[in-house]
Amino acid sequence: MEEYRVSVVDINFGCPVRQVTEKAHSGSYLLRTPMRMFEIISKLVQACAPTPVTAKIRLGCSPETINCNEIAKIVEEAGAAALTVHGRTAKDMFRGHADWERISEIKSYLKNIPLIGNGDLDSAEKVVHAFQNYNVDGVMIARACLGRPWLFAQAAAALRGEPIPPDPTLHEQRECMLRHYRLVVDRFGEEKGTVLMRKYACCYAQGKHGARHFRTHVARVNTAEEFHQVVDEYFPLMSNEEVKAMS
Ligand SMILES: Cc1cc2nc3c(=O)[nH]c(=O)nc-3n(C[C@H](O)[C@H](O)[C@H](O)COP(=O)(O)O)c2cc1C
Predict the structure, then answer these.
(1) Which among 52, 76, 89, 133 is least buried, having the fewest CB atoms inside 10 angstroms?
(2) What is the pTM of this model?
């Protein structure tokens, strides 16, 4: 681990996708066998030392079999350095709301390791609310940051008690997306990077007027030239406020 300069190894016991659960018996499938989780975590802790190993779970496999409190204890006993909990069960997939009350309850089952709450955080206000109300030591933001990476700066400012910076202008958002694209291409190369970026580009457009056209076109790009063409032509999207102001 040190050789690759990895800072942390996070084991995903939360993935609810059929291929991962039913076919590979991995991800959230393992929530039904906490002792197996214990074995996996302890072996990884040993193998990865001194790199910390953390675990990410859901509340359980289904609403009828919620066992996150028991699992939390086992995860800590196995030597994990932190526990992240997505407040849904595997059966819920992404339906309904994350149950933050359940996440909060887990805190009393942990002795020392931090509890990181996850699920449905899409604004700086919600992040502050989570810290103030649900006993968590940290939060994880997933879907909301895919097209709004500035959310972290907004949440961090709010947590420091500072005014929340406004969303970037559309021009700045476009520049941010282009920088994101450059980084993805630097890492994965033009061909793979462009295909990977299709879905993130759609996230940047989400909720904006004209997003549908942008999505339709960006979903087909294969080269950097095509990507930039589509951005030039379709990303000058308008915010909903601008659309309202024109009508
Ligand atoms: C497309 C997609 C891919 C994901 N991949 C992972 C993953 O590789 N590892 C993981 O721990 N969680 C993964 N998750 C779950 C998220 O980390 C997170 O638990 C979930 O989206 C709920 O948080 P959110 O409401 O902030 O999105 C994924 C979620 C989505 C939508």
Answers:
(1) 133
(2) 0.93
